[in-house]
Write a structure and sequence with these properties.
The protein is mainly α and about 475 residues long. About 60% of the residues lie in helices and about 5% in strands. It is built from 19 helices and 6 strands. It has a two-stranded antiparallel sheet. Strands 3-4 form a two-stranded parallel ribbon. Strand 3, helix 8 and strand 4 form a beta-alpha-beta unit. The structure holds arginine (ARG). The site of arginine has 10 residues, from helix 6.
Length: about 475
Protein backbone atom coordinates (compact mmCIF):
# COMPACT_ATOMS: atom_id res chain seq x y z
CA UNK A 1 0.00 0.00 0.00
CA UNK A 2 1.41 3.42 -0.94
CA UNK A 3 1.67 6.41 1.38
CA UNK A 4 -0.76 8.29 -0.86
CA UNK A 5 -4.50 7.98 -0.44
CA UNK A 6 -4.72 7.84 -4.22
CA UNK A 7 -1.64 5.71 -5.04
CA UNK A 8 -3.38 2.74 -6.68
CA UNK A 9 -3.43 3.90 -10.28
CA UNK A 10 0.09 5.39 -10.16
CA UNK A 11 3.33 3.60 -10.93
CA UNK A 12 6.07 6.16 -10.47
CA UNK A 13 6.57 8.40 -7.42
CA UNK A 14 5.71 12.05 -7.35
CA UNK A 15 8.35 14.61 -8.35
CA UNK A 16 9.75 16.28 -5.21
CA UNK A 17 8.95 19.69 -6.59
CA UNK A 18 5.34 18.68 -7.06
CA UNK A 19 5.19 17.48 -3.47
CA UNK A 20 6.25 20.87 -2.12
CA UNK A 21 4.26 22.78 -4.69
CA UNK A 22 0.96 21.05 -4.02
CA UNK A 23 1.08 20.54 -0.25
CA UNK A 24 -1.36 22.41 1.98
CA UNK A 25 -0.47 20.87 5.34
CA UNK A 26 1.67 23.90 6.14
CA UNK A 27 -1.49 26.00 6.40
CA UNK A 28 -4.50 23.66 6.63
CA UNK A 29 -3.26 21.89 9.76
CA UNK A 30 -5.19 24.46 11.75
CA UNK A 31 -8.38 22.70 10.58
CA UNK A 32 -7.45 19.56 12.50
CA UNK A 33 -10.05 19.87 15.29
CA UNK A 34 -12.84 20.45 12.81
CA UNK A 35 -11.61 17.69 10.53
CA UNK A 36 -11.74 15.27 13.43
CA UNK A 37 -15.13 16.52 14.57
CA UNK A 38 -16.55 15.95 11.07
CA UNK A 39 -14.92 12.49 10.77
CA UNK A 40 -16.38 11.43 14.10
CA UNK A 41 -19.87 12.40 12.99
CA UNK A 42 -19.29 10.62 9.69
CA UNK A 43 -18.13 7.43 11.46
CA UNK A 44 -21.15 7.42 13.76
CA UNK A 45 -23.43 7.86 10.78
CA UNK A 46 -21.71 4.96 8.98
CA UNK A 47 -22.56 2.78 11.98
CA UNK A 48 -26.16 3.98 12.01
CA UNK A 49 -26.63 2.89 8.40
CA UNK A 50 -24.78 -0.40 8.86
CA UNK A 51 -21.58 0.40 6.93
CA UNK A 52 -19.70 -0.03 10.25
CA UNK A 53 -20.79 -1.69 13.45
CA UNK A 54 -21.23 0.33 16.62
CA UNK A 55 -17.99 -0.77 18.28
CA UNK A 56 -16.01 -0.06 15.12
CA UNK A 57 -17.41 3.47 15.02
CA UNK A 58 -16.53 3.93 18.69
CA UNK A 59 -12.97 2.76 18.06
CA UNK A 60 -12.61 5.25 15.26
CA UNK A 61 -14.03 8.03 17.42
CA UNK A 62 -11.70 7.31 20.35
CA UNK A 63 -8.66 6.94 18.13
CA UNK A 64 -9.48 10.26 16.45
CA UNK A 65 -9.63 11.82 19.93
CA UNK A 66 -6.18 10.44 20.68
CA UNK A 67 -4.87 11.86 17.41
CA UNK A 68 -6.38 15.24 18.30
CA UNK A 69 -4.58 15.32 21.64
CA UNK A 70 -1.29 14.42 19.96
CA UNK A 71 -1.71 17.29 17.54
CA UNK A 72 -2.60 19.57 20.45
CA UNK A 73 0.49 18.50 22.40
CA UNK A 74 2.68 19.08 19.35
CA UNK A 75 3.92 15.50 19.18
CA UNK A 76 2.10 14.59 15.96
CA UNK A 77 4.47 14.27 12.98
CA UNK A 78 3.59 16.37 9.93
CA UNK A 79 5.13 15.78 6.52
CA UNK A 80 4.56 17.39 3.12
CA UNK A 81 4.44 13.90 1.61
CA UNK A 82 0.97 13.50 3.09
CA UNK A 83 -0.39 16.62 1.33
CA UNK A 84 -3.02 17.93 3.68
CA UNK A 85 -4.61 17.64 7.11
CA UNK A 86 -7.25 15.20 5.91
CA UNK A 87 -4.65 12.73 4.65
CA UNK A 88 -2.53 13.11 7.79
CA UNK A 89 -5.37 12.24 10.08
CA UNK A 90 -6.65 9.39 7.96
CA UNK A 91 -3.12 7.95 7.65
CA UNK A 92 -2.63 8.12 11.42
CA UNK A 93 -5.93 6.33 11.90
CA UNK A 94 -4.90 3.56 9.50
CA UNK A 95 -1.55 3.19 11.27
CA UNK A 96 -3.41 2.59 14.52
CA UNK A 97 -6.49 0.65 13.36
CA UNK A 98 -5.37 -1.04 10.14
CA UNK A 99 -8.29 -2.04 7.88
CA UNK A 100 -10.84 -0.43 10.16
CA UNK A 101 -9.08 2.90 9.61
CA UNK A 102 -9.35 2.23 5.87
CA UNK A 103 -13.15 2.27 6.20
CA UNK A 104 -13.54 5.81 7.50
CA UNK A 105 -13.46 7.47 4.10
CA UNK A 106 -16.47 5.40 2.97
CA UNK A 107 -19.05 7.50 1.11
CA UNK A 108 -17.08 10.72 1.29
CA UNK A 109 -14.38 12.58 -0.61
CA UNK A 110 -11.84 15.17 0.42
CA UNK A 111 -13.88 17.59 -1.66
CA UNK A 112 -16.92 17.51 0.59
CA UNK A 113 -14.67 16.93 3.60
CA UNK A 114 -12.61 20.10 3.15
CA UNK A 115 -15.71 22.22 2.55
CA UNK A 116 -17.24 20.80 5.73
CA UNK A 117 -14.08 21.40 7.79
CA UNK A 118 -13.78 24.98 6.58
CA UNK A 119 -17.42 25.66 7.38
CA UNK A 120 -17.04 24.25 10.89
CA UNK A 121 -13.92 26.38 11.36
CA UNK A 122 -15.70 29.45 10.03
CA UNK A 123 -18.63 29.02 12.40
CA UNK A 124 -16.20 29.25 15.31
CA UNK A 125 -14.39 32.13 13.64
CA UNK A 126 -17.66 34.04 13.22
CA UNK A 127 -18.60 33.48 16.85
CA UNK A 128 -15.14 34.61 17.91
CA UNK A 129 -15.36 37.75 15.77
CA UNK A 130 -18.78 38.54 17.15
CA UNK A 131 -17.31 38.50 20.65
CA UNK A 132 -14.45 40.77 19.59
CA UNK A 133 -16.80 43.19 17.84
CA UNK A 134 -19.00 43.29 20.91
CA UNK A 135 -15.99 44.11 23.11
CA UNK A 136 -15.05 46.89 20.74
CA UNK A 137 -18.60 48.22 20.91
CA UNK A 138 -18.46 48.12 24.71
CA UNK A 139 -15.19 50.09 24.62
CA UNK A 140 -16.83 52.66 22.32
CA UNK A 141 -19.89 52.87 24.53
CA UNK A 142 -17.70 53.40 27.60
CA UNK A 143 -15.87 56.18 25.73
CA UNK A 144 -19.21 57.72 24.74
CA UNK A 145 -20.22 57.84 28.41
CA UNK A 146 -16.82 58.95 29.68
CA UNK A 147 -16.60 61.82 27.19
CA UNK A 148 -20.31 62.50 26.93
CA UNK A 149 -20.17 66.26 27.62
CA UNK A 150 -17.23 66.97 25.30
CA UNK A 151 -18.14 68.85 22.13
CA UNK A 152 -16.09 68.08 19.03
CA UNK A 153 -15.91 69.83 15.71
CA UNK A 154 -17.57 67.57 13.15
CA UNK A 155 -15.98 67.49 9.70
CA UNK A 156 -16.97 66.99 6.12
CA UNK A 157 -14.17 67.02 3.53
CA UNK A 158 -11.96 67.27 6.63
CA UNK A 159 -13.13 70.88 6.94
CA UNK A 160 -14.88 72.06 10.09
CA UNK A 161 -18.61 71.66 9.56
CA UNK A 162 -20.93 71.47 12.59
CA UNK A 163 -20.47 70.67 16.28
CA UNK A 164 -21.10 67.11 17.48
CA UNK A 165 -21.13 65.58 20.92
CA UNK A 166 -18.21 63.21 21.50
CA UNK A 167 -20.79 60.62 22.52
CA UNK A 168 -22.43 61.00 19.11
CA UNK A 169 -19.04 60.46 17.49
CA UNK A 170 -18.35 57.24 19.41
CA UNK A 171 -21.87 55.94 18.78
CA UNK A 172 -21.35 56.42 15.04
CA UNK A 173 -18.73 53.66 15.13
CA UNK A 174 -20.94 51.50 17.32
CA UNK A 175 -23.49 51.55 14.51
CA UNK A 176 -20.90 50.54 11.92
CA UNK A 177 -19.68 47.61 14.00
CA UNK A 178 -23.26 46.56 14.64
CA UNK A 179 -23.80 46.31 10.90
CA UNK A 180 -20.61 44.26 10.74
CA UNK A 181 -21.97 41.91 13.40
CA UNK A 182 -25.26 41.63 11.54
CA UNK A 183 -23.42 40.86 8.32
CA UNK A 184 -21.46 38.03 9.97
CA UNK A 185 -24.67 36.65 11.46
CA UNK A 186 -26.23 36.67 8.02
CA UNK A 187 -23.17 35.07 6.42
CA UNK A 188 -23.35 32.35 9.08
CA UNK A 189 -26.67 31.19 7.62
CA UNK A 190 -24.97 30.29 4.34
CA UNK A 191 -22.02 28.80 6.17
CA UNK A 192 -24.33 26.56 8.14
CA UNK A 193 -25.34 24.32 5.22
CA UNK A 194 -23.82 20.84 5.31
CA UNK A 195 -21.58 19.81 2.37
CA UNK A 196 -20.61 16.35 3.67
CA UNK A 197 -22.30 13.61 1.68
CA UNK A 198 -21.81 15.39 -1.64
CA UNK A 199 -18.78 13.10 -1.90
CA UNK A 200 -16.56 13.96 -4.87
CA UNK A 201 -19.21 15.82 -6.86
CA UNK A 202 -22.19 13.58 -7.61
CA UNK A 203 -23.04 12.02 -4.25
CA UNK A 204 -22.64 8.32 -3.52
CA UNK A 205 -24.33 5.01 -4.25
CA UNK A 206 -23.82 3.98 -0.61
CA UNK A 207 -26.77 4.36 1.80
CA UNK A 208 -25.38 7.31 3.80
CA UNK A 209 -27.61 9.44 6.05
CA UNK A 210 -26.73 13.08 5.61
CA UNK A 211 -29.48 14.15 7.97
CA UNK A 212 -27.73 12.33 10.82
CA UNK A 213 -24.44 14.12 10.07
CA UNK A 214 -26.28 17.43 9.83
CA UNK A 215 -27.84 16.90 13.25
CA UNK A 216 -24.59 15.77 14.86
CA UNK A 217 -22.61 18.73 13.54
CA UNK A 218 -25.33 21.33 14.16
CA UNK A 219 -25.82 22.43 10.56
CA UNK A 220 -29.19 24.02 9.74
CA UNK A 221 -29.79 22.18 6.49
CA UNK A 222 -28.22 19.65 4.14
CA UNK A 223 -26.93 21.14 0.88
CA UNK A 224 -29.41 20.28 -1.85
CA UNK A 225 -27.05 19.92 -4.80
CA UNK A 226 -23.80 17.98 -4.61
CA UNK A 227 -22.27 19.67 -7.67
CA UNK A 228 -23.03 23.07 -6.24
CA UNK A 229 -21.83 22.51 -2.72
CA UNK A 230 -18.58 20.76 -3.60
CA UNK A 231 -17.56 23.75 -5.72
CA UNK A 232 -19.20 26.53 -3.67
CA UNK A 233 -16.95 29.10 -2.02
CA UNK A 234 -19.49 31.95 -1.99
CA UNK A 235 -19.80 31.72 1.78
CA UNK A 236 -16.04 32.07 2.18
CA UNK A 237 -15.74 35.05 -0.16
CA UNK A 238 -18.67 36.66 1.60
CA UNK A 239 -16.95 36.15 4.95
CA UNK A 240 -13.72 37.74 3.74
CA UNK A 241 -15.73 40.62 2.28
CA UNK A 242 -17.35 41.07 5.69
CA UNK A 243 -13.87 41.04 7.24
CA UNK A 244 -12.75 43.62 4.67
CA UNK A 245 -15.54 45.97 5.72
CA UNK A 246 -14.53 45.63 9.38
CA UNK A 247 -10.94 46.37 8.35
CA UNK A 248 -12.09 49.42 6.38
CA UNK A 249 -14.06 50.72 9.36
CA UNK A 250 -11.01 50.25 11.55
CA UNK A 251 -8.76 51.85 8.98
CA UNK A 252 -10.84 55.02 8.65
CA UNK A 253 -10.97 55.35 12.41
CA UNK A 254 -7.22 54.73 12.70
CA UNK A 255 -6.51 57.47 10.17
CA UNK A 256 -8.79 59.82 12.11
CA UNK A 257 -6.98 59.19 15.38
CA UNK A 258 -3.56 59.46 13.75
CA UNK A 259 -4.64 62.94 12.71
CA UNK A 260 -6.20 63.69 16.08
CA UNK A 261 -2.98 62.79 17.86
CA UNK A 262 -0.91 65.30 15.86
CA UNK A 263 0.27 68.62 17.30
CA UNK A 264 -1.89 70.27 14.62
CA UNK A 265 -5.13 68.69 15.90
CA UNK A 266 -4.22 68.01 19.52
CA UNK A 267 -7.48 66.15 20.20
CA UNK A 268 -6.01 63.17 22.03
CA UNK A 269 -2.96 61.62 23.58
CA UNK A 270 -2.37 58.04 22.56
CA UNK A 271 -1.38 55.75 25.42
CA UNK A 272 2.38 55.07 25.56
CA UNK A 273 1.80 51.32 25.52
CA UNK A 274 0.34 51.61 22.01
CA UNK A 275 3.02 53.84 20.49
CA UNK A 276 6.68 53.52 19.65
CA UNK A 277 9.57 55.96 19.46
CA UNK A 278 11.98 57.00 16.77
CA UNK A 279 15.53 55.67 16.61
CA UNK A 280 16.86 59.12 15.71
CA UNK A 281 14.36 61.77 16.89
CA UNK A 282 14.17 61.65 20.68
CA UNK A 283 10.91 63.61 20.97
CA UNK A 284 8.88 61.29 18.75
CA UNK A 285 5.93 59.20 19.86
CA UNK A 286 4.58 57.48 16.80
CA UNK A 287 1.10 55.99 16.40
CA UNK A 288 2.39 52.70 14.95
CA UNK A 289 -0.49 50.54 16.10
CA UNK A 290 -2.98 52.80 14.37
CA UNK A 291 -0.78 53.04 11.31
CA UNK A 292 -0.56 49.25 11.09
CA UNK A 293 -4.29 48.86 11.57
CA UNK A 294 -4.60 51.16 8.58
CA UNK A 295 -1.78 49.40 6.71
CA UNK A 296 -2.88 45.82 7.33
CA UNK A 297 -6.24 46.66 5.80
CA UNK A 298 -4.42 46.41 2.48
CA UNK A 299 -3.72 42.74 3.22
CA UNK A 300 -7.33 41.97 4.01
CA UNK A 301 -8.58 43.68 0.88
CA UNK A 302 -5.83 41.81 -1.00
CA UNK A 303 -7.12 38.54 0.45
CA UNK A 304 -10.57 39.35 -0.89
CA UNK A 305 -9.10 40.04 -4.32
CA UNK A 306 -7.24 36.73 -4.19
CA UNK A 307 -10.49 34.87 -3.59
CA UNK A 308 -12.47 36.70 -6.23
CA UNK A 309 -9.83 36.03 -8.84
CA UNK A 310 -9.37 32.45 -7.60
CA UNK A 311 -12.92 31.37 -8.45
CA UNK A 312 -13.18 33.34 -11.67
CA UNK A 313 -13.73 30.96 -14.54
CA UNK A 314 -13.66 27.72 -12.52
CA UNK A 315 -15.77 25.01 -14.15
CA UNK A 316 -17.88 22.75 -11.94
CA UNK A 317 -17.16 21.07 -9.63
CA UNK A 318 -14.07 20.83 -7.37
CA UNK A 319 -10.80 22.14 -8.80
CA UNK A 320 -7.51 22.09 -6.95
CA UNK A 321 -7.34 25.87 -7.25
CA UNK A 322 -9.77 25.91 -4.35
CA UNK A 323 -7.03 24.77 -2.00
CA UNK A 324 -5.72 28.35 -2.24
CA UNK A 325 -8.86 29.68 -0.53
CA UNK A 326 -7.43 28.93 2.88
CA UNK A 327 -4.34 31.15 2.83
CA UNK A 328 -6.55 34.16 2.11
CA UNK A 329 -9.20 33.07 4.60
CA UNK A 330 -6.80 32.55 7.50
CA UNK A 331 -4.77 35.66 6.78
CA UNK A 332 -7.85 37.89 6.65
CA UNK A 333 -9.26 36.40 9.84
CA UNK A 334 -5.98 36.58 11.79
CA UNK A 335 -5.38 40.16 10.71
CA UNK A 336 -8.83 41.45 11.56
CA UNK A 337 -9.02 39.51 14.84
CA UNK A 338 -5.76 41.12 16.00
CA UNK A 339 -6.86 44.56 14.82
CA UNK A 340 -10.14 44.32 16.74
CA UNK A 341 -8.34 43.34 19.90
CA UNK A 342 -5.93 46.28 19.67
CA UNK A 343 -8.55 48.80 18.63
CA UNK A 344 -10.65 47.98 21.69
CA UNK A 345 -7.59 48.30 23.93
CA UNK A 346 -6.63 51.70 22.47
CA UNK A 347 -10.18 53.02 22.81
CA UNK A 348 -10.40 51.88 26.42
CA UNK A 349 -7.18 53.73 27.31
CA UNK A 350 -7.50 56.93 25.33
CA UNK A 351 -8.62 60.24 26.84
CA UNK A 352 -9.68 63.25 24.79
CA UNK A 353 -7.64 66.42 25.37
CA UNK A 354 -10.61 68.47 26.47
CA UNK A 355 -8.89 71.85 26.98
CA UNK A 356 -7.07 71.63 23.71
CA UNK A 357 -10.30 70.77 21.86
CA UNK A 358 -12.29 73.48 23.66
CA UNK A 359 -9.62 76.13 23.09
CA UNK A 360 -10.19 76.10 19.33
CA UNK A 361 -13.81 75.03 19.17
CA UNK A 362 -15.11 78.50 18.25
CA UNK A 363 -12.88 78.53 15.17
CA UNK A 364 -14.27 77.44 11.82
CA UNK A 365 -17.86 78.77 12.11
CA UNK A 366 -19.40 75.56 13.42
CA UNK A 367 -22.53 77.59 14.26
CA UNK A 368 -23.08 78.98 10.73
CA UNK A 369 -25.55 76.29 9.64
CA UNK A 370 -27.57 76.67 12.83
CA UNK A 371 -27.73 80.43 12.19
CA UNK A 372 -28.99 79.73 8.69
CA UNK A 373 -31.64 77.39 10.06
CA UNK A 374 -32.63 80.04 12.59
CA UNK A 375 -33.29 82.45 9.69
CA UNK A 376 -35.30 79.74 7.93
CA UNK A 377 -37.36 79.18 11.08
CA UNK A 378 -38.09 82.94 11.04
CA UNK A 379 -39.56 82.56 7.58
CA UNK A 380 -36.65 83.34 5.27
CA UNK A 381 -36.31 81.10 2.19
CA UNK A 382 -33.48 78.60 2.73
CA UNK A 383 -31.41 79.74 -0.25
CA UNK A 384 -31.68 83.39 0.81
CA UNK A 385 -30.67 82.49 4.35
CA UNK A 386 -27.72 80.50 3.04
CA UNK A 387 -26.58 83.48 0.99
CA UNK A 388 -27.01 85.89 3.92
CA UNK A 389 -25.04 83.76 6.37
CA UNK A 390 -22.34 83.23 3.73
CA UNK A 391 -21.93 87.01 3.57
CA UNK A 392 -21.80 87.24 7.38
CA UNK A 393 -19.04 84.61 7.45
CA UNK A 394 -17.07 86.59 4.91
CA UNK A 395 -17.51 89.71 7.04
CA UNK A 396 -16.27 87.80 10.11
CA UNK A 397 -13.22 86.62 8.22
CA UNK A 398 -12.40 90.21 7.24
CA UNK A 399 -12.80 91.39 10.82
CA UNK A 400 -11.17 88.30 12.39
CA UNK A 401 -14.18 87.70 14.63
CA UNK A 402 -16.75 84.96 15.27
CA UNK A 403 -20.40 85.19 14.24
CA UNK A 404 -21.34 85.73 17.90
CA UNK A 405 -19.06 88.81 17.99
CA UNK A 406 -20.96 90.66 15.26
CA UNK A 407 -22.91 93.64 16.61
CA UNK A 408 -26.76 93.69 16.58
CA UNK A 409 -26.94 96.21 13.72
CA UNK A 410 -25.27 93.74 11.37
CA UNK A 411 -28.01 91.16 12.10
CA UNK A 412 -30.70 93.88 11.83
CA UNK A 413 -29.43 94.68 8.34
CA UNK A 414 -29.95 91.05 7.33
CA UNK A 415 -33.50 90.98 8.66
CA UNK A 416 -35.15 93.50 10.96
CA UNK A 417 -35.81 92.04 14.40
CA UNK A 418 -33.21 89.31 13.95
CA UNK A 419 -30.84 90.59 16.60
CA UNK A 420 -33.27 89.88 19.43
CA UNK A 421 -33.09 86.06 19.38
CA UNK A 422 -30.04 85.37 17.27
CA UNK A 423 -27.42 85.33 20.03
CA UNK A 424 -29.18 82.35 21.58
CA UNK A 425 -28.12 80.13 18.69
CA UNK A 426 -24.66 81.57 18.16
CA UNK A 427 -21.55 80.04 19.67
CA UNK A 428 -20.84 76.32 19.51
CA UNK A 429 -22.64 75.33 22.72
CA UNK A 430 -25.79 77.17 21.63
CA UNK A 431 -25.59 75.71 18.16
CA UNK A 432 -25.31 72.23 19.59
CA UNK A 433 -28.32 72.67 21.85
CA UNK A 434 -30.39 73.87 18.89
CA UNK A 435 -30.36 70.45 17.19
CA UNK A 436 -33.59 68.49 17.44
CA UNK A 437 -34.02 65.94 14.66
CA UNK A 438 -34.11 62.19 15.27
CA UNK A 439 -30.68 60.63 14.86
CA UNK A 440 -29.00 64.03 15.29
CA UNK A 441 -26.40 65.13 17.77
CA UNK A 442 -29.09 66.86 19.88
CA UNK A 443 -28.09 66.14 23.50
CA UNK A 444 -31.39 64.47 24.52
CA UNK A 445 -31.30 62.40 21.34
CA UNK A 446 -27.74 61.25 22.03
CA UNK A 447 -28.67 60.45 25.61
CA UNK A 448 -31.55 58.32 24.35
CA UNK A 449 -29.19 56.46 22.05
CA UNK A 450 -26.61 55.86 24.78
CA UNK A 451 -29.37 54.29 26.86
CA UNK A 452 -30.58 52.22 23.95
CA UNK A 453 -27.07 50.88 23.37
CA UNK A 454 -26.63 50.13 27.07
CA UNK A 455 -29.79 48.08 27.00
CA UNK A 456 -28.85 46.43 23.73
CA UNK A 457 -25.34 45.44 24.74
CA UNK A 458 -26.48 44.46 28.21
CA UNK A 459 -23.90 46.58 29.93
CA UNK A 460 -23.78 49.12 32.70
CA UNK A 461 -21.01 51.66 33.16
CA UNK A 462 -19.64 49.53 35.98
CA UNK A 463 -19.59 46.44 33.83
CA UNK A 464 -17.44 47.97 31.14
N1 LIG B 1 -6.18 19.99 0.30
C1 LIG B 1 -7.31 20.04 -0.57
C2 LIG B 1 -7.96 21.42 -0.52
O1 LIG B 1 -7.67 22.12 0.38
C3 LIG B 1 -8.31 19.02 -0.16
C4 LIG B 1 -9.17 18.55 -1.26
C5 LIG B 1 -8.35 17.82 -2.21
N2 LIG B 1 -9.14 17.16 -3.20
C6 LIG B 1 -8.60 16.59 -4.27
N3 LIG B 1 -9.40 16.03 -5.09
N4 LIG B 1 -7.30 16.64 -4.49
O2 LIG B 1 -8.73 21.79 -1.36
Amino acid sequence: MTQKTWGGRFQGGTDDRVVTFTESISFDRRLYRHDIQASQAHARMLAEVGLLNASEAEQIVTTLDAIASEIERGTFPFSVELEDIHTHIERALIERLGDLGRRLHTGRSRNDQVATDVKLWMRDAIDDLDGRLRKLQLALLAAAMREREVVLPGYTHLQRAQPVLAAHYFLAYLEKYQRDRDRFADCRKRVNVLPLGAAALAGTSLPIDRESVRRQLGFDIVAANSLDVSSDRDFLIEFVFDLSLVALHLSGWAEEWILWSTTEFGFLDLPDAFCTGSSIMPQKKNPDVLELIRGKTARVVGDLQQLLVLVKGLPLAYNRDLQEDKTALFDAFDTVAAELELAAAVIREVRLRRESIAARLEEGFLDATTLMEFLVAQGMPMRAAHEAVGRLVRLCEERHVRLADLPPEVFESVRPGLSSGVYQVLGVQNALRAFRSAGSTAPPEVERQVEAWQARLGSSERGL
